[in-house]
Amino acid sequence: MTFDSQEPILSVVLPAFNEAGRVSVTIQDAAATFTAIHGDAWELIVVDDGSTDKTVDVVRSLSAMVPSLQLISHVGNLGKGAAVRTGVLDSGPE
After folding, report:
1. How high does pLDDT run on average in the chain?
2. Using H for helix, E for strand and C for coil, what is the string for 51-82?
3. Across-strand partners of 70?
4. Which of 38, 39, 57, 48 is nearest to 16 (CA)?
5. Class of the CATH domain delimited by 10-90
6. Domain edges within the chain
7. Which of 1, 11, 45, 59 could in theory staple to 87 by disulfide, Cβ–Cβ 3.0 to 4.6 A?
8. pLDDT (tens digit per residue) in 65-77
């Protein structure tokens, strides 16, 4: 089985609400693990669920270092289930 190098074979959705203090380490650890296992064939989708802290800023600052990182933001807090659903609907090949 072969995969197009542009198509992720692993998509991970990370819902986040007011996680500015933790999200950086989580993203960096996940990126290192996924890269070791899958090379560049993965994507990490962070869905910010209307955070009122600096979660969005932290994720954006990591996007230059982690090209497979994607950020989606909800305008308000819709709940964890909605954040997961948003990420799943956006995952995978376009």
Report:
1. 92
2. CCCCHHHHHHHHCCCCCCEEEEEECCCCCHHH
3. 45
4. 48
5. alpha beta
6. 10-90
7. 45
8. 999 999 999 999 9
